[in-house]
C-alpha cells in the first residue's frame, strides 16, 4: 500500500469529517439514548454501501470487508454526549458550532470520534482491494456510563479478531500531534461508596446518639494518611471523595452519613491494595466510633487501566510517521480519566491513541466535560490517517 494514497484520501475526507462532526455536535444525545445518532450513522453507512449490524440499545458495528485474506481488526468510536450545558464560547472566542439541545453537549469529543471513523470507513472502502480481512468499525453507545460496552463485546466475540484500536481527542496535547505510547495511558477506576450507620438523636445531646458524621470525617482524613504512607509513591494513584451527604436539620443527629468518590490507578495490584486500605480503614474507624459500614455500591475494580500493547502502539506510531511525517508524533503524560476501551484490550491486544486538540489561538483546550470544551477541527484528517494505518497494518508500509 502506497502511504501517499492513504495520506491523500485522509486529507480528502477532512471536509466530510468536519461536516459530520458539526452535525453530531449540534445534536448530542446522552448515554443509552442515542437513537437519532444511530439513525444518522446508518444513513451514512447505507450511502457508502457498507454492511452493518444493529446491537440491542443504540450501538452498531459496520463491516468493511477487505479483498485479501486476513484476521479481523476492531476500530472503536463512542457516540454519546454528556449532561452538560454548553457555553457558546471556548477559552478565547465564539465557537464554530454549539449544541442545540439544552443541557446536553458533546463535551468530550465523541462527535469527533464518530466523524473520524466515518471518514476512515470511506478511506477503507476506496482501498478494499488492498485491505486484508474485515475491519469491524464499532460505534459504541453509552461510553460515559459503560452501558454499551458489554453488548458490543458480546457481539465482537463471534468474530475472528486479531487486535483493536481507538482514538480519543485530548486537550492535554497540542493540535496536530498524536501520542500512541506503549504502556499505561488511562487510569483504572474504583468507585468508593461508603455508608456509615449510627444512631440518630437530638442535636443537643450527642452523647445520647451515635453521630455517623464524626467517623465519616475521620475516614476521609485517615484514608489520606494511609494512601500517602502505605502505597508506592512511584505508582501513580489518586483518591477523590466528591460527595458527602448526611442529615437534613441542624438539631437532628442523623442515623447515617454517605460519602462517594473514585480511586484512579495505573497498576492493577496497587489498585487492589488501595481498595483493601479503604475497606480496612473504613471498617476500623467506624467500629472505633460504635458505627457500622456498608459499601454501596460494592467496593470493586470497575474499570482496568488502558495499557497499550507495545507491538500495536509501535506499529501504528511508525506507520503514522511514514504516512503523515515524524512531526505528527507527540508526547504527553498519562490521563487520569478512565475508559471502557480497556475492556476491549482485555480481550485482544490493542492501543488507544491521544489526538491533540489544544490550540491557544483558536481557544480550544478547555477541560473535558466542561461547557467551554472545544476542539481544533483541523486534526480530523490526522485521526483518519491513524485509524487507516491501524487497519492496513504492515500493508501501510
What does this structure look like?
The protein is α+β, with helices and mostly antiparallel strands and 397 residues long. It folds into two domains: 3-185 and 305-396, 3-Layer(aba) Sandwich (Aminopeptidase); 188-302, 2-Layer Sandwich (Alpha-Beta Plaits), CATH 3.30.70.360. 34% of the residues lie in helices and 24% in strands. The strands form four sheets. The chain has a seven-stranded mixed beta sheet, sandwiched between helices. β3 (72-78), α4 (110-126) and β4 (134-140) form a beta-alpha-beta unit. α1 (3-12) packs antiparallel against α10 and α3 (35-48) runs parallel beside α4 (110-126). The longest helix is centred in the last third of the chain and has 21 residues, at 268-288.
Q: How large is the count of helical segments?
A: 10
Count the beta strands: 16
The helix/strand class is alpha+beta
User: What's the number of domains?
Assistant: 2
End-to-end CA span: 7 Å
Instruction: Encode the helix/strand succession as letters.
Output: HHHEEEHEHEEEEEHEEEHEEEHHEH
Could you describe the largest sheet, including whether it forms a barrel?
7 strands, mixed
Percent of residues in helical segments? Answer: 25-40%
Q: What average pLDDT do the residues reach?
A: 97
In the CATH scheme, what's the topology name of the largest domain? Aminopeptidase
Provide the low-confidence segments as ranges.
none
Strand content: 15-25%
- In one word, what is the shape? elongated
What order do the strands of the largest sheet run in, or round the barrel if closed?
A: 1-2-4-3-5-16-6
CATH class of the largest domain equals Alpha Beta
CATH architecture of the largest domain: 3-Layer(aba) Sandwich
How big is the Rg? 24 Å
